[in-house]
Amino acid sequence: MVTSERAEGQVKYIAIQSLKGQPCHVVNPWGPQEKVRVKLADSEETLIEAENAAELTFETEPGNVYIVERTAQPISSFDRETISGVRNEQAKLHGQARLGIPRQF
């Protein structure tokens, strides 16, 4: 499973959750001129660090989350914001349009 964030036309980071523990191949979204690293999300341990690499390949283990980031602008340098929400319990209606189905119990 892969997620990323983009701001001002630039990819901030890539987060990859390994489901099967297979090798992972990622195209460097910043281009080969950017020095990048791959680390485990729950530690500062750098698994690989690459310079002049158009593509990164690394081994994964099931359940681990890996972060691909630029060494010049690591994920820790970005602001973090927690968001919340309310669970949807009903179908949504807008005029004659309906999204979802009403609860049957």
Give a count of the beta strands, DSSP E runs of length 2 or more.
9
How does the major sheet shape up?
Answer: 5 strands, antiparallel
User: Would you list the SSEs in sequence order as H and E?
Assistant: EEEEEEEEE
> Ranges with pLDDT <50 over ≥5 residues?
none
Mean pLDDT: 91
The total of helices stands at: 0
Strand content: 35-45%
Given the C-alpha coordinates, what overall shape results?
A: elongated
Roughly how many Å apart are the termini? 34 Å
- What is the rounded Rg? 19 Å
What's the assembly state of these chains?
A: single chain
Which terms would index this structure?
105 residues, mainly beta, 9 strands, elongated
Please outline the helices and strands.
Blueprint: E1 2-7, E2 10-17, E3 24-27, E4 36-40, E5 46-50, E6 55-58, E7 65-70, E8 92-94, E9 97-99
Antiparallel strand pairs: 1-2, 2-7, 3-6, 4-5, 4-7, 8-9
